[in-house]
Amino acid sequence: MHVFADGISKVTLSNNNLRIQLTQRGADESTVEAGTLIIPASQANNFVNGLANSLKELDSKLKEAREQQTQQ
Q1: Helix and strand tally (H, E) in the chain?
Q2: What pLDDT, in 10s, does the model give residues 4-41?
Q3: Cβ 9 vs Cβ 21: under 8 Å
């Protein structure tokens, strides 16, 4: 399943699960709920760190690709 989200409206902890309300920007800049990402609280730290590390690696690769383009 694919969910497009460009924002977060709320983060709560319930029944040992981290619940992240995802949003989308709708018509006229309104906010539309896109779904809820549910992560076991015991795994939240690993999940967030894994996501952050993946984004850092992606950013590094994008910078490298830009540098190669400017050198050509």
Answers
A1: 1, 3
A2: 999 999 999 999 999 999 999 988 889 999 999 999 99
A3: yes
The pTM (predicted TM-score) of the whole model is: 0.78
Please state, in angstroms and rounded to a whole number, the distance separating the CA atoms of residues 48 and 39.
10
Closest CA to 18 of 5, 2, 36: 36
For the chain, what are the domain ranges? 7-71
Residue with tokens 């490298």: 64
- And the tokens for 29? 């800049």
In CATH terms, the fold of domain 7-71 is Nuclear Transport Factor 2; Chain: A, (3.10.450)
Task: Give CA–CA dist 46/50, Å, rounded.
Answer: 6
Contact 11, 17 (CB under 8 A): no
